[in-house]
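Recall the central idea of this unit: under ordinary conditions, the amino acid sequence of a chain determines the structure it adopts. In this exercise we apply that idea directly, starting from the sequence alone.
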Amino acid sequence: MKNYLNFENDIKNIEAEIDKLKDPYNNEGISTVDTGKIDKLQSDLDKKLKDIYSNLDPWQTTLVARHEDRPKSKFFIENIFENFFSLSGDRLFGEDKSSIAGLANFEGNSVMVIGQEKGDDLESRIERNFGMMKPEGYRKSIRLMKIADKFGLPVIIFIDTPGAYPGVGAEERGQAEAIAKSIECSLSLSVPTISIIIGEGGSGGAIALASSNKILMLENAIYSVISPEGCASILWRDPKKTLEAATAMKLTSRDLLKLKIIDEIIPEPSGGAHRDRDQILFELKKSIRINLAELKTMSRQDIIEHRKNKFLNIGREKSLSDNVLSSNDLFSNNVSKIFDVKNKIRSKKFYGFLLIFSIGVLSLIIFQLFFR
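Accordingly, the structure predicted from this sequence is:
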């Protein structure tokens, strides 16, 4: 049974009509297949999909990113890589099943693969904790990224999470520290790293694994610091203002590419990645191949510098202000401001001392004149 979103009613009706025509013997009064009508309806369906999905608003894009049938990390790992060998545990607490990680081959080259996995049905979603990683999941990722760095293996990461798990146990085991250490580790790696946002990229749970040389994003994925519902609840005290929140947050792939937070948008078939899995596999595999080839030409030091400059320049070239500064200008500007402040403090101290000294001398003169 197909799952439809609330703005897909026209699509649902056309597909229901096509299914009836394709199976005439289960419908009273119809005994032959009307191929001409099926072709016309199929053409109408393709046009309707293109019209709707080329004009999605940010909240509708969020719904597509969360679609139940959307391909998950497990699907991509099984179909893009060969000889995947799973690695488990953080060597400190235990295994986190919301992340799949291990060694694999990509077109004959060894790579380290990490993926946040939501699950495909209710049972697997509960087992995978709906893709919300715990501290042990992030510490496992850190352990495997360090192994990859030691042996010179590129790291490919699939991101699909509403956020890090906010439970009491996770907080007691140091959730915030684990996320911070994961970001620190990602930024310090001297091997190529590629993060691919395939669905939801929510909060610090996504950022922990998205501090990479290249951040790729499926066309209908989202990437934000908080969910639209959470943002609406905080800013408007109304969780129903999700469209306003999603629009203001600029969480879609097009907005993020304009802001140069991501590096590339991977096109999806009309109707979303779940409608043509072979097509999205082809597009994703092609993108990984091109980006890996580009990063492999860099030395280890160049890779670190590339990643550092990428994040330092976010918000500098494209921002809400016309006063744009490069990372070097920002650093020199800040240093000069610090020295200016220090000089002002010194001058104020001098004038303050001079004032106190003058008051003291004046008081002494007055005392000599009137009290002796």
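The mean pLDDT is 86.
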